[in-house]
Amino acid sequence: MTNFAHIAFYLAGxxxxxxxxxxxxxxxxxxxxxxxxxxxLAVAVDFYIMGAPLLAAxxxxxxxxxxxxxxxxxxxxxxxxxxxxxxxxxWLTGRAWIGPAILSxxxxxxxxxxxxxxxxxGSLSGVTSPKQIAIALYGPYVLGVELAxxxxxxxxxxxxxxxxxxxxxxxxxx
Amino acid sequence: xxxVHVISLLPLLVIAATSVVVLLATAIRRNHAVSxxxxxxxxxxxxxxxxxxPPNQVTQLLTMDRYAFFFMTLITAASFAVTLMAFGYxxxxxxxxxxxxxxxxxxxxxxxxLAASSQFASLFLGLEILSVALYALIAYLGDRPPSLEAGIKxxxxxxxxxxxxxxxxxxxxxxxxxxxxxxxxxxxxIRKGLDLxxxxxxxxxxxxxxxxxxxxxxxxxxxxxxxxxxxxxxxAFVATVSKGGMFALLLRYFSQSASYRFSPILLVxxxxxxxxxxTGNLLALFANNVKRILAYxxxxxxxYLLVALIVSNxxxxxAVAFYLVAYFVMTLxxxxxxxxLSGRERDADRLEDYRGLFWRRPWLAFVFTxxxxxxxxxxxxxxxxxxxxIVAAGAESQAWLLIxxxxxxxxxxxxxxxxxxxxxxxxxxxxxxxxxxxxxxAPAVSLVLAVLAVLLVWFGTYPxxxxxxxxxxxxxxT
Lengths: 174, 478
Prior knowledge:
The complex is a heterodimer of chains A (about 170) and B (about 475). By secondary structure, chain A is an all-alpha fold. Chain A has 7 helices and no strands. Chain A is about 80% helix and about 0% strand. Chain B has one domain (about 5-475). The chains are: A mainly alpha (about 170), B mainly alpha (about 475). Chains A and B meet through helix 7 of A and helix 2, helix 5 and helix 6 of B.
């Protein structure tokens, strides 16, 4: 465990906290989402430093990649039309992108430094390989995977029901 | 995992399979009665299978012992009653009803996992399965603004309390390197120094997460709004299955990890218990809404249960289990009455809806009176014996302050229960508008009420058979 790993860890942690605070205080949903992505990326960097590269990759692919981008699409698609396009243009001009860009650049610099100087990369608790995680998940914790699938089933049915009922309500109003 | 292990999981497997079957049946053709019947069948099968399955430790995650089976039968029975209540309630409404049963089964599965988990990973999974299904169940009637509001409140608060719980688990794991309750107990036993700097905050954060689900006092804010906003059968579910599963877990965690050896934790729990008893009963005095009164009373009841947990002797653990059974019976009974009187537009939650009920539907008023008196702890009912056991357990451990507060607050509690009871028997005056319940009489709910009333008196007068079952169940965790 080197001193540098600590500094990098806390720097990424600070970025995560800052981005999250900014995300929950933004008034425009799209701006909040940009900060949320930065926050998730910062957490991924923290996972990487702690010796869990697989988790870091999954955090980027699943959270920052799939889920939040889906959010962005939904927010963008909910208000179509010329008026919405005008507001959309307003959202994306100005200084909205500067904050997330600076924070992401910070994370990128940190990540490049970590990758370029592997001898300095000490992890806080040893490196866990994907194989170890897979063996744990499908060995002693296989029931956990099954239970998680039931969790997703419940969430899916619930989301489907609630989304449907609110949709039909707006249709009636139109 | 071998065949033996899979057989031991039977009660859980049946519920999980039923939820998928109901979902598929809904996908093929929507039919409320078919979904309802399949759900009842699955719950009944799961209930029965818990009597025949052999106890076993199934991987590290689930401990299927007698204790788990006892609470699983309790949970499935309560879900069965909730399903019976829900049929009449949703039948009279427009909109989609079949998803309700899938969500109910998934939530039941979550509570059963809680009852069987002896490890933090399965605790978290069970809790999340329960919570995620409950978000949707509470907000199920999307056309009612209070229902949606309650759902969102529950979503936000349950989400943040899960974060507390996860952080607490992480702290305990960082300190001890174990997730298993028994192993944690062993590690604490052999520890020499008393460095609690990670363990104590961790345990308190875990208690925060658990306390939220149980609606103990600093974390009780959501309770009245969610009880009021959720559809009546769902409220019954939140009050019984969700809290019962969580308390089963708390009791197991407390006794297996031997947390009572730490006086700071006992002190925290005592403060929470006293605050819950006082706040719940005092706030209920000022409430005018029957669902809110029941919500506050449930806060107080969780405080009483905590007293039995804190005294942490064998009698205390038995008292917790007995109290939970009694609490299930009387809470389900009270909410079955609310369900029966609820109309299409809103639930029967105002006190005016109950004014003079005796003169319109005497049997219903009579059963409701019995349930309320049991909640208040009047002799001849299960509620009285349950409280008696808690006081006895407290006296054995000489927890006089807790007992004193329990007795004082129970007396306070009499006032608001009697306020509802007197409203039931008032002569209806001509100008009050009588609330019209659903036109469709629900025979299923009448059946539930009759069975619960019999159980209430049976457990209150001849508790010996139940106590024997409880003793053998508690024996497997102590």
